[in-house]
C-alpha cells in the first residue's frame, strides 16, 4: 500500500513538472547573470562595511533577478584564493570589497583579462577593473559639524581602523567639520590598526573619554562597535559610520556618517545588468551623488540656528562652492 506521505510527494512532484512545462522555463535552463563578492577581512557580522555591501547584492538578487555568491577570508585563507574561486565558478561580475583586496584582485584580473571586476574603496588602472570610491570626507565633515556644535567639553575623539589614506579621509572631514562649527574644539585622533577588535575599541574610547572627549567617532569596523558601546557605558555621545548604527548604542549614537555601500553596489550591478558591462573606469560618489550623507539626528536636538548652519554647509557642498579636503593637515 502506498502511504499518504508518498502520495503527497508524488502530487507535489507532478505539480512542479506541470508548472515548469506551463511557463516554458526551467530554473536550470534560465540564463541568470551571476555576481560574486569577496568580502573584506572582518566579513559578515561587522555591523558596518561588509554587512552593508551584502545588503546591496541581496537587493540586486531580489530586484534584478540575478544569482550571487560570496567568499570570506576566514573560509578561503587569502583574497587571491577567494577571487580565483569566484572566477572559476564563472561569475559574470566579481566584486572585491575594500582597499585591502586590491593587490590580489589585480593579480587575478591580470590572469583573467576577459573577466569584469569591480573594486570598492580603491583605484586600479587595469582595463577590466572598474573602481568605485566615496567622498567619505564630505559625510564626515557633516558629522564633525554636529559634534563641534554640541560638545560641552570642547574635546572630541576620532578612532580610525588603520593609519592610511582611506581612513585619513574620514578623519580629515571630521576635523574640518568640528573646526567649522567650533574653532576652539580639540580633536583627538588615534588609529587602532585593527578593524575586528571590539575590546580594543572599548579601550581606546575609554582613554579618550578619560581625556575629556564627550563625542567619539570611530571609522573602524567592528573595533568601532566597541568604541560606541564604551561611549554609551561612559555616558558620552557617539557617531556611527557606514550604516545607521543608532541601534547598537541607543543612548549614545547621535547620528551616523552614511557611506551607502549597499546603494552603490546595487546601482553598479544594475548598470552591469542593463549594459552587459561596466564602461566607466572610476565611479566616485559623494554627497551630491547620494553616496554619503548623515543619518537622522537622535538623542539631542539641534537649535534653529544650528540646523541652519548644517543646512547651509550641505547646500555649499552640493553646489560646489565648498570643497572639503580629503587629507589631514
TrEMBL record:
Gene3D superfamilies: 3.40.50.2300. Its main location: membrane. Pfam families: Bmp. Coiled coil: none annotated. InterPro entries: BMP_lipoprotein, Peripla_BP_I, PnrA-like. Residues 37-308 form the ABC transporter substrate-binding protein PnrA-like domain. One of its GO terms (cellular component) is plasma membrane. Belongs to the BMP lipoprotein family. It comes from the Bacteria. It is found in: Cell membrane. This is BMP family ABC transporter substrate-binding protein. The keyword Cell membrane applies. Keywords: Cell membrane, Lipoprotein, Membrane, Signal. It comes from Anaerobacillus isosaccharinicus. It is a lipid-anchor.
